[in-house]
């Protein structure tokens, strides 16, 4: 794998020694100039940059983001003693964006096969397409959660940062099970694309909905195999480093909370942080925020509970809720370790049940259980039920 990467220059980060600080940099096995490539058997969490912005719409310059983010991330305190991870350096870009995608997909596939969780510093958000292909090479059925002001379902034959989801959907065979957008802004997408998301049976949460109830995003992140984040989803006052930013968006604290949700998820195996453009940054404010958000992911990762019910049946409580006009009850599961909730979606077809596997158990909240107790079908359960059993909504 070493041949895909170029080393990083730690000296350029200008880290200041402090004998009283346990820096995160001391917990990272980094691929440095003159040094050895990290031993991947020693780290469950793997970081690398992808300096690719040729398909980043209206945001050329984001290829240089990884260097700026690392300088801030390495200078933070380690979240815990167990926070051991590897930094593979920067993926060497190909002659064309497509060449970069091929290399990134291969690297992603190899790391997933090794059971690693991957942190990718873009680059443009079109890299999501390549990471999806990495999962596809493993025949891994996956859910994608996009933290983005837009749906990125645009037109065009070539993949770019505004149409990569369309290209993922069109892949044959297709391994995308579900897609959820977190934080879209209606004036950037229009009613046509909102309707299209509904027709595709994908979920979308408006920015205001998440801001009013940040915990509503926790089950979404817990259900995602891959999380892809466009930094333009953060308001310009908190993260100005984007060529097409907006005065509206998530606050920095909310971005950090979303990253922690993803880090805590036993399911999330890849996170892409994309579209941060140092050309537009102010006093490296956005790089600071990105590093803080990654820190929260790392903290969450090393605090994972491993309490997914199919994996750990001894440590959850099972609740059966019978609704009117339903023959079978809805089954809920509550973790004794974390107090998190799941609900099970029945599937009558044996072949589909084997095919979908863990997708039949959906993260939810206590509020979903309460709604079921009031004879209200949770919206997410209903959507998944129709999707899995191939019935019209």
List descriptors.
10-stranded mixed β-sheet; about 20% strand; alpha/beta; 4-stranded antiparallel β-sheet; about 400 residues; globular; 12 helices
Question: In words, what does this structure look like?
Answer:
- There is one protein chain.
- By secondary structure, this protein is α/β, with parallel strands linked by helices.
- The chain has 2 domains: 2-301, Ureohydrolase domain (Arginase, Chain A), CATH 3.40.800.10; 313-388, no CATH class.
- It contains 12 helices and 14 strands.
- Strands 1, 2, 3, 4, 5, 6, 7, 8, 9 and 10 form a 10-stranded mixed sheet that branches. Strands 11-12-13-14 form a 4-stranded antiparallel sheet.
- The protein is globular, with a radius of gyration of 21 Å.
- The termini are far apart.
